Amino acid sequence: METVGGERILDRLARVMTAALGQPPLLVANAPDASEWRPDLRTVSDVRPGFGALGGIYTAVIEAPAPVVCVAWDMPFVSESLIQALAEGLDGADAVLPQSDGRRGVEPLCAAYGSACREAIAASLAEDDLRAIGFHHRIRVGARDDVTDRGREPGDVILRRDVTDARERIRRPRISKIDQRQVVPSAASASAVRLPIP
Fold it and tell me: Is the pTM of this model over 0.70?
């Protein structure tokens, strides 16, 4: 497992998500040894294998179950305040995503998903639309542009990172804006925390 700042990224995410939402995350991972990564976490593999990142989100929505906050394993700089802001946004939307400078304009692999996403994602999977935002036209989507940490630019916290670049970045005294060329393909695993249903 990769580390950033001397801490495994998975451990860092589990710590931040637990602190933000008061319970440990569900680990969605397809590796045969995934349950050994963090024996204290419930670990599940994709309920519909082979459907990429959208399959991971779908699994979290079903297995946690929704409402959930999902974070891809390769986002070491996600903060408690970001997780909390996404969760709070579900009061007025079925999915809440941070805005980003990426090609989609939002970051679906660091987002909150409500129960309406289950059927919407299932419909997209049935149509072979594996885009992580392909189901958004079926639900109410909220985009947050206020989910940055003090001292960082908006893209710094939410975009997925090349782990080598992340290691270098954590050593830098000043954090600079992400170079879009360093964004990596969809994550193979995610963490999800079930939110309390009011």
Answer: yes
Instruction: Give Cα 92 to chain centroid, integer Å.
Output: 19
* Phi, psi (degrees; rounded to nearest 5) at 95: -145, 140
Q: Give the pairing type, strands 110-113 and 141-144.
A: unpaired
Question: Residue 15 in contact with residue 77, Cβ under 8 Å?
Answer: no
* Amino acid identity at 118: R
The upper half-sphere exposure of residue 115, i.e. CA atoms within 13 Å in the direction of its Cβ, equals 5
**Domain made up of 3-194: CATH architecture:** Alpha-Beta Complex (3.90)
- Find the helix or strand (DSSP H, E) in which 12 lies: helix 9-21
In contact, 178 and 155? CB cutoff 8 Å:
yes
Q: Distance between CA 120 and CA 126 in Å, rounded?
A: 10
Going from N- to C-terminal start, the domains of the chain cover 3-194
User: For 84-121, how does the pLDDT look when each residue is reduced to its tens digit (9 = 90+)?
Assistant: 999 999 999 999 999 888 888 899 999 999 999 999 99
Residue 141: closest CA among 81, 79, 97: 97
